[in-house]
């Protein structure tokens, strides 16, 4: 029989304890521990969500991540760069359902420089000042700097001046250069991802941290990933949330190259989520990834440490291209939250409460 796991909530979880919990703790005990930690941070039992829309302004990308089924090359028939009026139409539709944020990300287009991005952000921000632009992940920021021959700090400051509010944590995958060299060899390395987030935090720009597991990483590498973001959070307090999801393998090069990579179980997802809640003691918000896990496990995630259901996802193209096509609207989210005796609330990008239900 597995021994009962004791966690001292007065102390930080060590790497060794995290490894022990991932590999040995019974699932229900992890749920109890993560729920206790969540209640310390959110005693009011409010579970939040945001009404937003993903807008992928281009699918053109040169980075060729092997786990990605979304990108196209410029010469491909179905490659695109959205025109400003197409973007406007999407934002108009979002406003019609009470949305407050756009998650604005693309592929990494080889030819677009800082002037294009400045014009784009300025256009959106001027026309829709009520919409928060949460956009451009570290890989885009890094490339804009390189192709425009300016520093990362300058990219971030110039986009911030035009109306960029915060940046998403995409592109972190697993912060281990061994793993990155296998699954996305052309992508920025661990230290660059951390540097971009540190730089954003230094100018008051908040970001999120993410993790995609389920490819070739070890449990130790997962914990190292958490440790790197926990350390940066200690330094800057600039991350608003942690969001974790499992690799979706359909239509990807990685699955063809390494057929041994199998879909991750719900048990594994919930297990890792619970331990992340314990390890990331300086992250107030953890999102449930119902988009990759489905609405039922998305709801269960709230019992394993998550306090936020993320976005209603009016539009999602990236994980859909790799086989995950779950959908949920605001009413369903409210029902799922009430169903586990918590109180639903709509929030904005900064996690301010906008409406309670
Ligand atoms: S994950 Fe992003 S950077 Fe990588 S290939 Fe896909 S679009 Fe490009």
TrEMBL record:
Pfam families per UniProt: CofH_C (PF19288), Radical_SAM (PF04055)
Known EC number: 1.21.98.1
Domain of life: Bacteria
InterPro entries assigned to the protein according to its UniProt record, in alphabetical order: Aldolase_TIM (IPR013785), CofH/MnqC-like_C (IPR045567), Cyclic_DHFL_synthase_mqnC (IPR022431), F420 (IPR034405), FO_synthase_su2 (IPR020050), rSAM (IPR007197), rSAM_sf (IPR058240)
SUPFAM superfamilies: Radical SAM enzymes
Keyword Iron appears in the UniProt entry: yes
PROSITE patterns named among the record's database cross-references: RADICAL_SAM
Residues annotated to bind (3R)-3-methyl-D-ornithine: 137, 289, 311
Enzyme class: oxidoreductase
Keywords: 4Fe-4S, Iron, Iron-sulfur, Menaquinone biosynthesis, Metal-binding, Oxidoreductase, S-adenosyl-L-methionine
Cleavable signal peptide: none
Family statement: Belongs to the radical SAM superfamily. MqnC family.
Matching NCBIfam families: CofH family radical SAM protein, menaquin_MqnC, PRK08445.1
Record-given protein name: Cyclic dehypoxanthine futalosine synthase
Name of the encoding gene: mqnC
């Amino acid at each position: 029989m597995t021994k009962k796991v004791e966690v001292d909530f007065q102390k930080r979880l060590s790497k060794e304890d995290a490894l022990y919990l991932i590999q040995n703790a019974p699932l229900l005990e992890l749920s109890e521990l993560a729920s206790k930690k969540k209640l310390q941070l959110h005693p009011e039992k409010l579970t939040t969500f945001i009404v937003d829309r993903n807008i992928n302004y281009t699918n053109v990308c040169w980075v060729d991540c092997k786990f990605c089924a979304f990108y196209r090359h410029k010469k491909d028939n179905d490659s695109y760069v959205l025109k400003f009026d197409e973007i406007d139409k999407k934002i108009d539709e979002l406003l019609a359902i009470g949305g407050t944020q756009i998650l604005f990300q693309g592929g990494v287009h080889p030819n677009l420089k800082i002037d294009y991005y400045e014009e784009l952000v300025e256009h959106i921000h001027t026309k829709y000042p009520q919409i928060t632009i949460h956009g451009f992940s570290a890989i885009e920021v890094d490339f804009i700097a390189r192709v425009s021959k300016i520093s990362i700090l300058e990219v971030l400051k110039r986009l911030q001046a035009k109306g960029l509010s915060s940046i998403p944590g995409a592109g972190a995958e697993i912060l281990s250069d061994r793993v990155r060299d296998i699954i996305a060899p052309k992508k920025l390395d661990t230290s660059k991802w951390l540097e971009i987030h540190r730089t954003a935090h230094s100018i008051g720009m908040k970001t999120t941290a993410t993790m995609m597991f389920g490819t070739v990483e070890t449990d130790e590498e997962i914990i190292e990933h958490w440790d790197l973001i926990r350390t940066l959070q200690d330094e800057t307090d600039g991350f608003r949330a942690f969001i974790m999801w499992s690799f979706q393998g359909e239509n990807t090069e990685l699955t063809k190259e390494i057929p041994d990579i199998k879909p991750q179980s719900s048990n594994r997802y919930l297990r890792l989520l619970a331990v992340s809640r314990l390890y990331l003691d300086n992250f107030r918000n953890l999102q449930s990834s119902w988009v990759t896990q489905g609405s039922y496990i998305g709801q269960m995630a709230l019992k394993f440490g998550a306090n936020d259901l993320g976005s209603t996802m009016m539009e999602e193209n990236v994980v859909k291209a790799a086989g995950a096509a779950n959908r949920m609207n605001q009413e369903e989210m409210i029902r799922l939250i009430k169903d586990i005796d918590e109180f639903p609330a709509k929030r904005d990008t900064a996690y301010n409460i906008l409406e309670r239900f």
